[in-house]
Amino acid sequence: MILSPNATNRVDAKAINGSVDLFNLASNYTKLRRNAHHDWQGDCPKCGSDFFHVYQLKGEWRFRCYECHDKPTDAIGFAMWLQGCDFMSAVAYLSGGSFIHTHSHTPSRAPSEKADAKREGLPTWAAAKLAAAQDILISDPAGQPGRDYLAERGLLPATWQAMGMGFDSAVAIPGTEGKWQDRPKAPAIAIPWYSEDSKLVGVRYRFFTEHNGRKLTAMQGSKFTGNLFGAHAMYPSKLMTLVICEGELNAASIAQVAGNTRVDVLSIGSEGGTIPDRMNGQMALYGAVVAWLDKPEQASRIASKVPGALARKSVGGKDANDCLKAGNLGGMIAAARLGLCTNDADRLALLWDLYDGGMVSPGLDNGTAAFVKRLAADLGQSVTLQNIGGAWFTGVQS
To answer: What is the CATH number of domain 124-218?
Structure first.
């Protein structure tokens, strides 16, 4: 361990940072590629974005992730940030020892919840780029590949528009080198993220197929950490059910089949996402909350953030979009809501929520229709369902 010459019990942080090759250290956790003369870029070892940089600034090594750690930080800070350890544990590791987790530590430079809440949206050019992509998807002949892709995923044009999706035929492939104009590109769906006050904070791009092992990238400057997909459309009420999932297309799928049955949906984004503490109060205003994620431990982790929430894991490796295409997603959401009912009054309210959803387009899917019939029979109620064009309706459609 390097100590200050002026005090034998004081760590010389500058000397330690100067003795560490941050490029080699970071390379143990991610593959870096040259982005500029003194700058290397790769996938962030913490959030997975393509905005992780290691670079030299006036001869000193620094790192930053423009998504989850947008502050230039030295080698000691890198160890603290990545491992969640305290200063002395990081120093011990960089001096040739190993990490000693003396207590949980969040680096002081990490963005606070308060800072997240006040975060500015993306610049005007980003909103203009998104608007152009939205127009192309909805009505331009050049957007046909995007329309075909979303149709194959079972998503309706009304859902694309409600979610603000767009199509970009030339999105730079993550993991490739060079200036933007020289990098290989591929078509992708643009999916906007908005803050609770409707500021555009990020744009996720979803490729049709994997490129370099990845299906996702993002518009530069996007800030997903500290935000939730769909937050701007929340309508907290004791009459409403909130479903929390992972993945934007899963959220769109749930909104499509259950949005007219008093259901709001939010996505944490990737598996490691979480609910910002500032939103706990809004979550508590819902009558019921379901956390549906692929892995049971992740579902339990998210459900624990909201008192009384129900944790649900994907069945048979099928996510919400898989279930949408199979025609049983609505029934699965309804069954999860039934699990939160405590009496016949709750169950009757659920039945009429579903019934009301069947009175408007796009109607109910096969799973919901079967569920409605069973629940009505259990409650001694009579309902009439009509199949029109493959969807089920509870009223005569003109």
So the answer is: 3.90.980.10
